[in-house]
Design a protein that fits this description.
- The protein has 222 residues and is an alpha+beta fold.
- It folds into two domains: 97 residues, Glutaredoxin, CATH 3.40.30; 105 residues, Glutathione S-transferase Yfyf (Class Pi), Chain A, domain 2, CATH 1.20.1050.10.
- Helix content is 55%, strand content 7%.
- Strands 2-1-3-4 form a four-stranded mixed β-sheet, covered by helices on one side.
- Strand 3 and strand 4 form a beta hairpin.
- Helix 1 crosses helix 6, helix 4 packs antiparallel against helix 5 and helix 4 runs parallel beside helix 6.
- The protein starts with 5 loop residues before the first strand and ends with a helix.
Length: 222
């Protein structure tokens, strides 16, 4: 095996996409293994590879890591994207947790029953514009710096640009009332490692389609 981290998940965004984003932002190349059948997933469980019988699975530095939050914080720490002290880490953790709550809504949208999709989309718009994005607009405006924490690029910035782009896919004008976030989006999108990740042909996954939803239900069915 090469020295590259190895990511095992489905060929779609899901809970692995923030891991792909963070590695890409850190300039780290990685390999991917895509689960396509329930048998592949069951074999990982049988072999004892998945600590809690769940993916994402990331093999890095001789470890087989599960639990998205643990994976992300390890990568952030390893590549110096986790602040300079405990206080900065606490801020990054708070911001990341908030963004994760917003992303959870997006994650579940493709699995909504047809009659609930419009309601769930309205809820996403309401929460993004009234609860989550105002926080980051205010933070950026108050300290007048380019990044969320310590004026240094961190895990929180990576999560935020991922969330902004994911919400915009569903609600194109969502940033219309947030000039600081518009500027942040432009700046982040032009950072060399992120710009590369946003190009066609990168490991970034497209929005989930019906095929992805079918594969998820097939692989994880009990």
């Amino acid at each position: 095996m090469s020295g590259k981290p190895r990511l095992t998940y489905l060929n779609g965004r899901g809970r692995m996409e923030p891991v792909r984003w963070l590695l890409a932002a850190a300039g780290v190349e990685f390999e991917e293994v895509f689960l396509q059948t329930k048998e592949q997933y069951d074999k990982l469980i049988k072999d004892g590879v998945l600590l809690f019988q769940q993916v994402p699975l990331v093999e890095i530095d001789g470890m087989k890591m599960v639990q998205t939050r643990a994976i992300l914080s390890y990568i952030a720490g390893k590549y110096n994207l986790y602040g300079k002290d405990l206080k900065e880490r606490a801020l990054i953790d708070m911001y990341v947790e908030g963004i994760s709550d917003l992303m959870q809504m997006i994650l579940m949208l493709p699995f909504s029953p047809p009659d609930a999709k419009e309601k769930n989309l309205d809820s996403l718009k309401e929460k993004a514009t009234n609860r989550y994005f105002p926080v980051f607009e205010k933070v950026l405006k108050q300290h007048g710096q380019d990044f969320l924490v310590g004026n240094k690029f961190s895990w929180a910035d990576v999560q935020l640009i991922e969330a902004i782009l994911a919400v915009e896919e569903k609600i194109p004008a969502v940033l219309s009332g947030f000039p600081q976030l518009q500027a942040f989006k432009t700046k982040m999108s032009n950072m060399p490692t992120i710009k590369k990740f946003l190009q066609p042909g990168s490991p970034r996954k497209p929005p989930p389609d019906d095929h992805y939803v079918e594969t998820v239900l097939k692989v994880f069915k009990r």
